Amino acid sequence: MLGWCSRTALVLLATILSGLVACSSSKPGGSWLYEKGPGGRLLDSEIRIETQRKTRGDRRRDVRRIRCKDGVITGSVVAPRQKLRGESPISFDDYAAVWERYNESGWGLNVEPLDPSGGYYHIVTMRLGGHSHEFSAQQRTNFLGVATQDIATRLDLVNEVVRLLDEVVKLEPYEPDVEGEPSEGNKSSQGK
């Protein structure tokens, strides 16, 4: 009995140690976030969510974005209907956690047409290095009145970005132009 326990303990210890070695040799957040090669810097990236509300004739869209440009990670929100916008730094840990979820699930999703009977319609654009992809998310129910797992996954991805940006971005009033973008006199440094 003691021999079996000793062998089991050694196998567990070896597994834990090999896991620790593997984790310590990889880059924080996953090597896929970085340029290839030694000393690779963070890839430029963006997760952009445009939300269309169900108001007839209203073409304004809320835009939420998490972006890494030259190693600087920021989050921004523009909400033209509420006449609010803001931009703030995002921690690397939050950035890596969001990208981990999107990397696992987002690349395989596609754009579905807007369902007039559904909820808010979100177009999500993912860009990481030279790769980009779009998918949509909208609260919908099937004929039984239940949302499918695919719909739940899409909305979970959108909600993860919304929650993070709600926590870190302080929104301030601005005057939008006709299309809902900041007017020339009120444009911030977002996107530049």
Task: Write a structural description.
With 192 residues, this protein is α+β, with helices and mostly antiparallel strands. The chain is built from 3 helices and 7 strands, in the order αββββαββαβ. Helix 2 packs antiparallel against helix 3 (149-168). It is globular and about 50 Å long. Mean pLDDT is 80; it is low at 9-25 and 183-192.
SSE layout and pairing:
Layout: H1 2-25, E1 45-52, E2 61-69, E3 72-79, E4 84-89, H2 92-105, E5 121-128, E6 131-138, H3 149-168, E7 172-173
Antiparallel strand pairs: 1-2, 1-5, 2-3, 3-4, 4-7, 5-6
Helix pairs in contact: 2-3
Query: Can you name the CATH architecture of the largest domain?
Result: 2-Layer Sandwich
Q: What form results from the Cα inertia axes?
A: globular
Average pLDDT, all residues: 80
Instruction: Please provide the count of β strands.
Output: 7
> For this structure, what is the CATH class of the largest domain?
Alpha Beta
Helix percent reads: 25-40%
- Largest sheet report: 7 strands, antiparallel
At the fold tier of CATH, the topology name of the largest domain is: Mago nashi protein
**Euclidean distance between termini CA atoms:** 67 Å
DSSP helical segment count: 3
The helix-and-strand class reads: alpha+beta
Computed Rg:
21 Å
Query: How do the strands of the widest beta sheet line up side by side?
Result: 6-5-1-2-3-4-7
Q: pLDDT under 50 segments (min length 5)?
A: 9-25, 183-192
Strand content: 25-35%
The number of distinct structural domains comes to 2
H/E order of the elements?
A: HEEEEHEEHE
